[in-house]
Amino acid sequence: MADPTHVAHLDAGDWNEWRTAHPHITPDLSRLDLAGRDLHGLNLQGAVLQSTNLEGADLSGCDLRGAQLRMARLNRARFQDAVLDGADLSFQNLLEVDFTGASLRHVDLRNSELHGSRLDGADLSYARLDGVSMAGCSLQNVRVFKASMLRARIRGADFTGAVLEEVDLSESDALETRWREAEWRQVLAQRANLTRANFYQARWDQVQLQGSQMNGANLRFLQAHRVQMEGVALEGADLTGSRWSDCVLRRVTARHTQVDEVTMEQVSLDGSLWDGVDFHTARLTAVTWTGAWLNGCRFTGMNLRSADFQQAQLVGADFTEADLRSARLDRADLQGAVFRRANLERARLVEVQAPRADFGRASLALADLRGGHFPYADFRFATLTGADLTRARMDYAQLSYADLRTARVLRAWWWGADLSHARVRGLWAWRVLLRMGRLFFAARRRVWELRQAREEARRRRAEEVLRERRSPR
Fold first, then answer.
1. Does residue 432 carry a pLDDT above 50?
2. CA atoms of 28 and 67, how far apart (whole Å)
3. Which domain holds residue 47?
4. For 20-34, 154-168, 362-376, which range has the lowest pLDDT when averaged over its residues?
5. What separation in angstroms does the CA of 231 have from each of 166, 210, 254, 459?
6. Is residue 409 in a domain?
7. Spacing of C-alpha 270 from chain mean position
């Protein structure tokens, strides 16, 4: 129960003077009904306020460091610019409370309900926020340093201009949160729900996002440095104008994202899924796509020199007029991909699968196409000078007017290929090679026809024997 002497000083209005004169006394105002009271500016440091009714009270500017607020009723109270460092507010209802500009360092808000509260400009450094519910709260320009927000429920909260450093947001529900112009430094967000979150013009540094949901997120003009995203869902997100440097986006699902004018430098996109994305306005430097899914993507006219597309899925991708000099596409799936007028000089296409790919008028000078499969591919007017086609399958490929001078064709397959008007050195050797190929395939066909004829004769003989057995004697 409250101490009557302490209550008397509170009612008399000389509270702060009494506290100054008796600094060693611990004020006891427990179980009092102070609802709606004007208590602003009071020194309540270390005060016992357990089970006290402070609903709607004005505690602006109060010093509540170390105050005991367990089971206190604080709904709609005002703590503007108050100091609550170290306060224990865990497992409490704090509905529509105003903490604007308050110092909440080391405060314990675990599993508390702050629905509709305002924390604009508050300092939540070292706070314990695990399981806190801040759905719909305003936390503009809040500072959160070395705090834990595990499984925090912050759906729809406004963190515009907030600064989070060394914060753990893992498994938090941050659906449709607003982070415009916010800063994340060394933030960890594993399996967090950031669906449709708004990070417009935000800044990320050393952020880790593993297994999080970010579908439909707004990442327009985001500045991301040393970010690691693994297994993150980014489908339908908007990355327009964002800048990524020294980042890892591994196994990210990013189908149908917007990447207009995006900049990526030293970025790994290995194993990620970007089907149907239009990259043609992006600026990509030292980006790796090993094992990525890029079916139907557009890379027209892009500078992709030395890009790494090894083992990537590029079915139907469009590289028209792209610069792919020294690019690595080993064992990539290029079925139906378009490389018209692209520059693939010194590129590696070892063991690629490229049926019906279009290399028309492309430059593949000194390119490595060993063991590649190019059935029905279009190489018309292409430059293959010095290219290595050892063991390449060129069945029914169109190579009319192609330049194959000094190309290596050891053990290459040319069955049905069209080499009309192609430029080759040692034309007689090519003719012998093609003639031998035709003779070989003709011989194989003759053997197959003989086997078929023998099988047909065997079947006819069997039918005759069967009829003889069935006929009456």
1. no
2. 10
3. 1-69
4. 20-34
5. 21, 6, 10, 59
6. no
7. 11
> Of 92, 144, 100, which is closest to residue 118 (Cα–Cα)?
100
Q: Do both 181 and 108 map to the same domain? A: yes
Q: In this structure, what token pair is assigned to residue 103?
A: 């110092």
- Within a domain: residue 418? no
> 233 — alpha (psi -120 to 50), left (phi > 0) or beta?
beta
* Residue 450: per-residue pLDDT: 80
User: What whole-number distance in Å separates Cα of residue 137 and Cα of residue 271?
Assistant: 37
In a shared domain, residues 164 and 123: yes
The string of pLDDT tens digits covering residues 69-82 is: 989 999 999 999 99
pLDDT band for position 368 (50/70/90)?
very high
Residue type, 177: T
Total domains present in the chain: 2
Residues 179 and 90 in one domain: yes
Q: Please indicate, yes or no, whether residues 185 and 108 belong to a single structural domain of this protein.
A: yes
Residue 1 lies in a domain: yes
The b-or-e profile of 24-56 (16+ CB within 10 A means b, else e) is: eeebbbbebebeebebbebbbbbbbbbebbbbb
Q: What is the mean pLDDT of residues 183-209?
A: 97
